[in-house]
Amino acid sequence: MRLRLPHFRWSWSLPATFILFFVVAGAPFPFGSTNDLSIAFWCLCLGIAVIFAPTRDLRSQHVWLLAGIGVIVAGYAFVLHEQLSDHPWIAPFNPIWKRASELLEVPIAPSASIVKNEAFFALGAPLANILAIVLGITVGADRERARRLLWVIAISGALYALYGVLSFLIEPTMILWRDKTAYLGSVTGTFINRNTAAAYFGSCAVIWILLILEDIRRRIPERHIEWKRLSRDLSDIPPREILPQLASLLICLMAMFMTTSRAGVALSLLAMIVSFTVFLRKDLPPRTGIWISLGSGVVVALGLMQLLGGRVSSRFDSQGLVDEGRVEAWKSTVKIIADNPWFGTGMGTFQWAFPPFRSPNISIRGIWDAAHSTPLELVSEVGIPLGLLVAFAWIAMFIVLAKGVFGRRRDAIIPLAGAATASLSLLHSCLDFTLQVPGYSIPFFALFGAGLVQSFRTTEQSGRQLAVPAGWENTRSEIAAKAGHRSPEIHKTVYF
Q1: Is 471 among the domain residues?
Q2: Which of the chain's ends, N or C, has fewer CB atoms near its CB within 10 Å?
Q3: First and final CA of the chain: distance in angstroms?
Q4: In the chain, how many H helices and how many E strands?
């Protein structure tokens, strides 16, 4: 008897897909990947993956997305040249070098940046984000790979949340193998900062909610949910098929609340409420359904806040949403921008640029190495023109994602997850520095890319084999036979 081995078909997309999933799952692990060695390693991995990136599924709309990213890369390259070059094309030298030369009475070669060559070392995190979103587009052009990416982020997030909760209960003074020097009363997972951890766990909770809703919605046969029969339909779902997802959602929510981050928890709950409402918008009663859903979501969020987030509520009561020190820091950062409007002070130079502009209303304790507002810090380091270009890119991304959320008939969960987590991360970064932590930004920039590429409806011409989604067992011939017709050849374009 001859043994027949399973046939394995090699695909050039496999290396890129595997590396992307590995980086997405591993980036949060080494303390949020904030050190240069970790960032360099992820850039190396993502760069290798880009070499093998699949392109056969890309269409003209996807190429335009990559072209837009190319414009951003060109903008960064121009600013980087001006800040690093001894002979910039148009950028003026920062006057700090002339003053230093006069004080020291020695000639000093000037630069457009206040710290020479710092822009080169600060390039790692933006480069990793760009590579991640490019891979999200190329790998995520295939719907199955895009959905797997969604699951990889959700499962890895649940595992990190589980580790965070257990490590806090067992040994709260340690993060992995290092001593924990800050936020001893809060869960941080593998991150250093509790605010970034809250945004990460909250983003993963948003994805789990969408995955659970999609699974439940698929099991309900009616075109529109019959709310009177909903409890019976839910009881028909085998517990073993839904409990793992619910448990993963619960552990992410628990870890999120245990971070005690005010903005992280509040914005995550807001993202969950809006995502829930948008996903079920067609099943809600007309006119009042959306408002009822939003109101119910707020009630549930407040209940969870009281049940799991007592310490978060106490921080809101005592400190409000934002402390006064951050507001003063933002005002100081605006002054930096006013003094360096065109090319900034140099990428990665905020901690050196801030002291002369530091407000006297800020406590003298500690060093401000971040503006606690990523948009303001970005503009202060690279200038207003590049900052506006990045802002326009974010606006364009949200427009495309919105088109996918409201235009797709299937797989709308992918652009919806991208839009929800992008909104959460951007809003939180206006109050903190979430998107400046590669352990958070790399996985979700990959998700943004997959959400963008899946925002366009799939067009399949006749003569090509259509991919049949799960649960659609009837072919067009069988549908025609049930209708009492012969199976004519269909030449129309089919949209999903």
Answers
A1: no
A2: N
A3: 46
A4: 20, 4
- The residues, any chain, with a CB within 8 Å of residue 426's CB and separated by 6 or more, are 394, 435
* Domain assignment of residue 8, yes or no: no
CA angle 298, 192, 301 (to 5 degrees): 5
Residue type, 369: D
Structure tokens at 420: 């929800």
CA-to-CA distance for 273 and 353, rounded, in angstroms?
A: 39
Q: Which secondary-structure segment (H or E) carries 178?
A: strand 178-179
> In one letter, which amino acid is 138?
T
Block means of pLDDT (10 residues each) for the chain, 496 residues, are 45 84 95 92 96 88 93 95 92 89 88 90 93 95 93 96 94 89 87 93 96 84 62 70 90 92 89 90 73 77 66 56 76 93 93 88 77 92 95 96 88 93 94 92 96 78 38 40 39 35
13 sits in which H/E element: helix 13-26
Tokens 């709950």 sit on residue: 269
Measured between alpha carbons, how far is 80 from 410 in angstroms, rounded to an integer? Answer: 42
How far lies 475's CA from each of 137, 307, 468, 487, in Å?
A: 30, 49, 9, 10
Q: How far is CA 28 from the centre of its chain?
A: 12
> What is the Cα 90 distance to its own chain's centre?
35
Query: Would you say 286 and 292 are in contact if contact means Cβ atoms under 8 Å apart?
Result: no
For every residue of 316-361, which 3-state class applies, written as one string? HHHHCCCCHHHHHHHHHHHHHHHHCCCCCCCCCCHHHHCHHHCCCC
Residue 492 inside a domain? The answer is no
Look at residue 80 and tell me if it is in a domain.
Answer: yes
For the chain, the domain total comes to 1
Q: Which two tokens stand for residue 225?
A: 């949910």
- C-alpha closest to that of 202 among 157, 150, 149: 157
Residue 282, both tokens: 């067609």
What is the domain extent for residue 151? Answer: 20-224+235-460
182 CB burial (10 A radius; 0-12, 13-18, 19+): exposed
pTM: 0.86
Give the list of residues 6+ apart from residue 144 with CB closer than 8 angstroms, or none: none
